Amino acid sequence: MTRLVVVTGTDTGVGKTIATAALAARAAGQGERVLVVKPVQTGIGGADPDPHDIDTVAALTGVDTLELAALDEPLAPDTAARRAGATLPTVADHAARVRALADAGSHDAVIVEGAGGLLVRLDLDGGTLLDLAELIGAEVVIVARAGLGTLNHTELTVAALRARGIEPAGVVIGAWPCSPGVAASCNRDDLPRHTGVPLLAVIPEGAGSLLPDAFVEAAPSWFA
Q: Which of 33, 41, 66, 113 would be a feasible disulfide site paired with 20, CB 3.0-4.6 Å?
């Protein structure tokens, strides 16, 4: 049976894409056939476009990837779509697509990377990544910052998941500094204690700059 995983951040810019790549690399290293799906990518237009997250994951890990929708402006998907006069698949559409991919049996794990945080709207009807995770029955991994503010943001994300009856699979610290300060060092211990959710992995800052072979080799060592 195909394993379904949703990766969400406590905020934008917390290292979610590199954490997704690390999860994919670890699974592939354990012999799983992995597909990473990005329901909606934003920020791909303009003079200085953002890289597609699935391209980053594919380059680092070599696993299969799929992007379902893309928008130019670096905004929440629903806002970017409204400003562009564009349509978006509904969260129910995304759920059906992910389920079909899982049921096809071509992959042992399908990892879905969200956009920003858990309650960011992925469609024009108010559907969120939380709705998607619930619809497909996925385990959810939370990517958090190392520094100040992360305890509050992570506990809010955990509370939102538990309110839907979803127990998070674990927390990943998305970018661990080379010289962590007191706040980061305390947070590393306090995140599992405050949330009751295990700390799955601590990814070193700059991991996304590693060459693919080095990334794949190192990724398993970042997990507890």
A: 113
Q: What's the pTM value of the predicted model, to 2 decimals?
A: 0.97
Q: Is 161 exposed, middle or buried (0-12, 13-18, 19+ CB in 10 A)?
A: buried
Out of 26, 38, 107, 121, the active site residue is 38
Is 53 annotated in some ligand binding site?
A: yes
d(C-alpha 46, C-alpha 180), whole Å:
35
Is 203 annotated to bind a ligand? Reply is no
Q: Taking the chain (224 residues) in consecutive chunks of 10 residues, what is each chunk's mean pLDDT?
A: 97 96 98 98 93 98 98 97 97 98 97 96 98 98 97 98 98 97 97 98 98 98 95
- The helix (run of H) or strand (run of E) holding residue 185 is helix 182-195
Is 116 part of any known ligand binding site?
A: yes
38 catalytic? Reply is: yes
